Structures are given as C-alpha cells and as structure tokens.
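User: My notes are a mess, but here's the protein and copper (II) ion's SMILES. Can you give me a structure?
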Amino acid sequence: MTLRSTSAKIALIPLATIGVLAGSADAAAGASSSTTVKAVETDFHIALSKKTFGPGTYTFVAVNKGQTTHALEITGPGLHASTADISPGQSAKLKVVFKSGGAYDVFCPIPGHKMLGMNVNLKVSGPAAAVSKNTTKSTMASGSGAVSF
Ligand SMILES: [Cu+2]
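Assistant: No problem, the inputs look usable. Here's the predicted complex:
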C-alpha cells in the first residue's frame, strides 16, 4: 500500500501558533474565523490575493503554478510556519495567526527562490506585539505600574 497521488502534503502547524489563542474575555463565539488568502507561486514570484492584513487567523492556500518545486514560508513576530515542498500543479495550505501588527515575510524557502523574487513583505496593521524580551539594559524601573490591558 503506497500513498501515491493523494498529495499528502499536510502543512504542519507549529504548536507555537496554537498556544496563544488570546484570552480575550469577549471571545464568546466565532472561534473558527479564518480568512483564506490565495498565494499563487510561479517561477519566481508570489502573488497574494489579499493586500491588506490585520491581526487574525489566515489560511494561506499556496498554489504552485510554476515549473519547479516551491513551498511557502511565513515569518513574523512570534510566527514561523512553512508548508512542505509543493510540486508543480499541487497546492498546500498553511494556517497562521497574526497576533499583532508588524512586519511579516511571505516567501519560498527553496534555496535561491527568495532571492529570485519569491518574497512578499507584509505589513500587518494594528498594535505591535508587547515585546517582553527586553535584554538586560539596566533600567531603573522603580515600581512603574505596568498596566496590562
Ligand atoms: Cu520556490
């Protein structure tokens, strides 16, 4: 029994994206609202069906319309996700969560392809992440009430 043409390229969703489903108190319903974004990959370009982004959950559908193998990788604040390799004519889904505003990068991780133009810089609108990795900068924080929300 061999899996042949079943396109068993299921995108692995890193645990990191699952862990932080924000604990907003008003999240009563609608937990599964994901915006679908088509990412058409050619040699060597990525065309996204959506131009503006805000924080939220997105399902990128990467379609390889090129002649060579591609893949789709997305990085950004607290995010690093990637599909498996996508053969010409195939497609793969990649579900990601943009937790905050900032600069994100959508590109093809196949060596050389990003440099050849398979690179889209996304600006996600909205407040930037509350970066909590302040390196040791000897700040005299004398009991400043860090208000959380
Ligand atoms: Cu590629």
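The chain has a mean pLDDT of 79.
User: Great, I'll file this with my notes.
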